Amino acid sequence: MKTILIFFTLIGIAITSFAQENNQKFIDGSITVNGKVIEGYLWKKNGNAPWDFQKEVRFITYDGFKKLTKVKFKYFNKYGPKDCEGYTYEGTYYEAVKYADMSAAGAGMIAKRMFMKQHSLGKITLYEFFQVPPSITTGNTPPPSKTGTMVYRKGKEGKLKAVKDIVIKKEFADCPLVLENYEKGDYNFFEEDDSGLIKALSKTAANPVEVRMLAIADYNENCGKEDMK
Question: Where are the domains of the chain?
């Protein structure tokens, strides 16, 4: 009897160890291909570097996973930003987009396709972009920043641009409410060519990204309603 109990205890330990080992390798997730959401497992990313989520992702469907005799990285299919519309990882959606980082030097300013973390969806959709640190560093190379750049797209076919560069009077010209709030100084912000009155209403300096985010929120709520995907 004692031998049987030991046997089943060892089996239980083996099963638990296998589950724990595999849970460290993959998680539930989905990819979107041709507008269809396909559920399955995503191979877990190594570490938490935010720029790694902008690269390819490894995925296998639930049915495909059931056929595996052993869980290995090579059995998870690779999907890049040219192969699918996006993927969901731990509840966050990463959309395949094309973006040029104008703050970078040289080749970094050329538009590239990548997955980008989506923060909100609307007529103006918000994303967060992370600069990829150089592969070769020196002692003078500053540590990589995990603070992203907020990026937006107006409409489904709009070009992605940095939120900090929004010209409020131009980008929100089709939303009287946002323009009215801006001219009243509600966003506590002014632009170089504004009248002295608007500058006077904006009594204190404001974070240029935060105030534009407020304007985007007002725009989507009042002037940019559209069906969410």
Answer: 20-165, 167-229
Largest CA distance in the chain: 91
10-39: string of b/e by CB count within 10 Å (b at 16+)?
eeeeeeeeeeeeeeeebeebbbbeeeeeee
Q: How many C-beta atoms surround the C-beta of residue 124 within 10 A?
A: 23
pTM, rounded to two decimals: 0.78
Task: Decide if 188 contacts 206 (C-beta within 8 A).
Answer: yes
Q: Are 78 and 30 in contact (CB under 8 A)?
A: no
Query: Cα 150 to chain center, whole Å?
Result: 10
Q: What is the pLDDT of residues 65-86, one digit of tens each?
A: 999 999 999 999 999 999 999 9
Q: What is the dihedral of CA 186, 192, 198, 201, to 10 degrees?
A: 60
Q: Check whether 117 has a pLDDT greater than 70.
A: yes
